[in-house]
């Protein structure tokens, strides 16, 4: 499955300033592994030491926050848009 | 990696941000130069302002203007801030609420009524800070993701300070809030989704070339913007006669306001402006959007996001960024996080109006409802000095209440007497 990943400004040092990259994988976990293979170091910015999505990172597969889906096991259909977003924005 | 400013940039920054020294990650402590950034590059944690405070005394504050700029020495703003075009919010009434206290069985209760701000919500405080940051960074457009109050505050502040504005709201907001956002002449864009969808959209826009020179008050200006909530703490303490309340009830949307009021109290103690005495912080949510209260009840330190379903739309943030810090603060101070149903919110709006003449928006119904619940359950100390926040005006959420005329009669004394109204 080929997916499109929207990269936040903070992580673009890993993607040579690309705001959007392509990755492969049937689940979010696979996609992150593929990103790591192509952009070494990026996975550790998204996942903590225990392998969970960091507390202040939101990941969307399509329009769905993966916390409402299956987390890292969320299926990533061919062509889907994945967005990685800092969670600290918004609200008061 | 922190980006070092040039010497001239550093000097300009120092002038623009007064006692603010740097940005510091609340999660891992990494420090950054002051700039339009909001998340740590290492752990994505929230960046906060770190200060190097000069001499601030009660007397110097009391000599200041009758708005939030009397606390300029404690905020990331230039020394001449009071002379710049801004909405100049703050110094709103701290209402001694004896009738509400009597009804609830409390000895000492005050309502901090922020509906008295220029656009009738506490958001004027935070936006005032963001305007100064936007000015310093050279942005020309002010923007935000908003549940309504913030959109109005941004529209008004942008108009006065000479910025363009474009605010993003979830479709289906209360009509009053939409009008109050749109009347100032900026763009108001409704997004087909809830607040969390709007917030996500704004975060993506800011990472796109289209939004790179925009000042999003609650995204890339968030560290500066959020500091505005500290002024609630300063005012409450000053209005109580330079004393901290023993108990305070604060609404939770993202949780930022609660964390900053706590920060403000701690700063006052550290600066010797108030006596160091314990205070308990209570967070208030509506049941239909209560991820922080649910985590509190279940003893979790991680917030499980929810899909909001409540009339308290100004608090309807299902994925509250500062939720974990709210839990820490309420635990540390001996407080709690409590939720009330929409029916209790409406009833509490009427209770506050009936006893104190304050017409609160739904968020004020949430805090008043939680106050009542805390007293009923014996969690609050009825003898301790208590403050409850009303963060917005009931005129913004008219649809939430069903109050109306008592009777319709002919213009005659007989009709009046016959209607049994005496």
From TrEMBL, chain A:
InterPro entries: Beta-grasp_dom_sf, Mopterin_synth/thiamin_S_b, Sulfur_Carrier/Prot_Modifier, ThiS/MoaD-like
Pfam families for this protein: ThiS
Signal sequence interval, chain numbering: none
Database matches in PANTHER family: SULFUR CARRIER PROTEIN CYSO, SULFUR CARRIER PROTEIN SLR0821-RELATED
Designated name of the protein: MoaD/ThiS family protein
Source organism phylogeny: Bacteria, Bacillati, Actinomycetota, Actinomycetes, Streptosporangiales
Automatic annotation (TrEMBL), chain B:
Keyword annotations from UniProtKB, A to Z: Lyase, Pyridoxal phosphate
PTM-bearing positions, type N6-(pyridoxal phosphate)lysine: 123
EC number: 4.2.3.1
Ranges where the Tryptophan synthase beta chain-like PALP domain occurs: 89-392
Listed GO biological process terms: isoleucine biosynthetic process; L-serine catabolic process; L-threonine catabolic process; threonine biosynthetic process
Enzyme class: lyase
SUPFAM superfamilies the UniProt entry points to: Tryptophan synthase beta subunit-like PLP-dependent enzymes
Cofactor (UniProt): pyridoxal 5'-phosphate
GO molecular function, one term: L-serine ammonia-lyase activity
Pfam annotation, one family: PALP
Family named by the database record: Belongs to the threonine synthase family.
Protein name, per record: Threonine synthase
Record organism: Nocardiopsis gilva YIM 90087
Species lineage: Bacteria, Bacillati, Actinomycetota, Actinomycetes, Streptosporangiales
